[in-house]
Amino acid sequence: MTQARRYIPEINLMRAMAILAVIMIHSTSNALVQLQTASSFYGLYVFLHDFAVFAVPAFIFISGFVLTYNYVGKPLTGGTIGTFYRKRIWNAVLPYAIFSLFYFLLKAKFAPSADSATKFLEQLLTGQAYGHLYFMFVIIQYYILFPILLLALRSGWVRRHIWWIGIALQWGYYYLNREYIVHQTGWPDVLHRTGSLFISYFGVFTVAIWIAIHYERILSWFAARPAVRRLSALLAYALWLVSGFYYVYLRYQGLVHKDWADGQVFTYTQFVYNLASAVALFLLSNVILRRPKALGTRLLGNIGVCSFGIYFVHPAVLYYYRDIPVPGNGMLFHVYYACEYLAALLVAWGITWAIQRNFRWAWILFGTSSVPKKKPAESR
Fold it and tell me: What count of Cα atoms within 13 Å lies in the side-chain half-sphere of residue 166?
C-alpha cells in the first residue's frame, strides 16, 4: 500500500452534503423553540432538524477515511509522525484557536472582562468557546490518537477487524458511562459531555478506516459484480432512510407527546442511523460524481472545498441574522427561517470562497487542506 494515492473527488461532495446538514441543524434550532408543538408545521421542522444529525458522524467518517487512505501505507517513523502533527497544527489547531478567540470575543461583545484570558483558555481546551466548536475538540482528539491507531494497524488481524473493534469500544464506553461515570461527582465536566469525546463516534471512525484500507479492493470487487453493487447500494440507502425516519419519529414522539423512548433504544437507533448515513452519503457521492460537469455537481464540489470555512463562519452569520425579529406564525415565519438557512450558507460560502481565492494567507483561517489537489487532500 505504498504506491501514490489517487485523488478521491467524491470526498468533497460528501463534505458538501455534511456541511449543508450542519447549517440545517443550526438554522432550524430556534424555529423548534419558537413554534408551538401543536402547529401543523412542527413535524416538518423536527424532520429538517433531526434528519440532519448525520452531519457530525459524516465528517468523522471523512476524517477517518482520508487520514487512513493517505497514511496507512507510509512507514511509521518519527519523521512521518512529526510531519503528521505539524500539518494538523497548521491545518486544524491554528484555525480552531483563531475562531475560538473570535467567537469568545463575539459573545463578550468584543469587551472582554479582566478574567477573560483564563476563561478563554479553559474554553479553548474543552471546545466550548462557541457551540459548534465542540466538533473541532473531537477531531483534535482523533488527530492525537491516530498515530497510535496506525501502529495498531501494522497487525494484519487489526486491519481485518478494526471496524468491529471500534464499534465494541464505543458501546463498551456507552455502558461504562451509563452505569458508572455518569454517577460520579467532582470529575472534569468534559467527561460528562459524551458528545465531546472521540469514543462516542469511534465506531464510525473505525468503519471508515476499514473501508479506506480495503477501498481499492472493494472497488474492484464491485466492478466485477454490478448487480451486487446495485443491490448493496439500495440496501444501504434503505437502511439510511428507515433508520433516519425512525430516529425522527422517536424525537417527534418525545417532543410533542412527551413519550420519550428508552435511552438504550434511542442510542441504538441513533448509532445505526449515524453509521448508515456515512456509508450511504459516501455511495451517493460516487453516484453524483458520474456527472462531473453538471452544475449541481460543480456547486457541491465547491461547497465541499469551502466546507471548513463555511463551518467556522456560518454561526457568526446566524448570530447577526437573529437580530432581525422573528415574524408571527404566518407564512412570514417560514420565510424567515428559509432565509436564515440561505443567508448562513451563501454568506459563509461567499466569504470563504473569496478569501481562499484571493489571499495567500487563507490557510491561516481555513487550513491548506481546503484547497483542491490532484492528490488526495488531507483531512482536517
Answer: 29
Question: For residues 163 and 204, is the Cβ–Cβ distance under 8 A?
Answer: no
Give dist(CA 252, CA 238) in Å, integer: 21
Close Cβ partners of 358 (under 8 Å, ≥ 6 residues apart)? none
Helix or strand run (H / E) with residue 255: helix 226-257
Check residue 153 and report its DSSP letter: T
Phi, psi of 111 (to 5 degrees): -135, 70
| DSSP-derived 3-state class of residue 262 | coil
21, amino acid identity: A
Kindly state the average pLDDT of the residues 45-56: 97
pLDDT at 379 over 50: no
Long-range contacts of 28-33 (CB under 8 A, 24+ apart): 28/337, 28/341, 30/322, 30/326, 30/337, 31/333, 31/337, 32/255
In contact, 162 and 206? CB cutoff 8 Å: yes
* Separation between Cα atoms, residue 47 and residue 180, nearest integer Å: 33
Cell of 362: 487563507
Cα–Cα distance measured from residue 263 to residue 267, given in angstroms and rounded to the nearest whole number:
6
Residue 269 has pLDDT above 50, yes or no: yes
HSE-CB at 249 with a 13 A cutoff on CA atoms is 9
Give the DSSP letter of residue 91.
Answer: I
Residue-wise pLDDT for 72-100, tens only, equals 988 889 999 999 999 999 999 999 999 99
At residue 376, φ and ψ (nearest 5 deg) are -60, 125
